Predict the structure.
Amino acid sequence: MRQKIASLLFGMIFLLIPATAVHAAQAIPEERQLPRLVDRADLLTEEEETALLEQLDEISERQQCDVAVVTVDGLDGKTSTAYADDFYDYNGYGYGPGDDGILLLISMEDRDWAITTYGSAIRAFTDAGLEYLVAQFRPDLSDGAYYEAFTCFAEQCDRFLTQAAEGAPFDEESLPKQFDPLWILISCAVGIFAAFLIVGLMKAQLKSVRRQDSAQGYIRPGGFHVTGGNELFLYRNVARVRRAESHSSGRSSTHSSSSGRSHGGSSGKF
């Protein structure tokens, strides 16, 4: 009887050990375990890694919000969103007590990208803001200019976090203005050409005008002469129109990760 009880207890302990080990392995660390740049797909040179990591660290510390970039060869059977969420959570990313941060994941196997946000970064990067953000770096990503894409991502994150700290985050009605340098040059060239054309036409119409020796020469004989003037201010009518207030939705979609925490973000192909 004692042997049966001992065997039963031993079996229960044996079953509990792996479960406890798995739970411990999936626990969220209190401190970040990896740098803010992890290039497992080896997309960057050593010089590029050093420069990008310095940029990410400087922005993260100044904004008090982790900004990270991770590249991998494959997703180990997960979706890009799940992989990004888990990488963020189980490697202890996030700044301060709120674990605030944003992480860009690149998987080369099927050319997937995913962005995960957590804490205050969920508010700072709205759905519309994330769409704009991705549109800035994805062309370089598709062209294989990975360093340029990642530095663009970091710069835009810095811009978004500054905007959120100063007031309302970038959203559908308040996205940054985009300027195409080519169109600026074309507009300037067209403006200069139009100015020369107009001045030339005006000059052609003034061929009959001749320079006079004195001011009297410019006065038409028998013309109207003003001998005096007096202005009297009688009324003032001021109309005040109330400015319509603009309300930004500030919508940031969220989802639950395998850790049970709520993340924001987006994903796609490049």
Summary: The two ends are 65 Å apart (CA to CA).
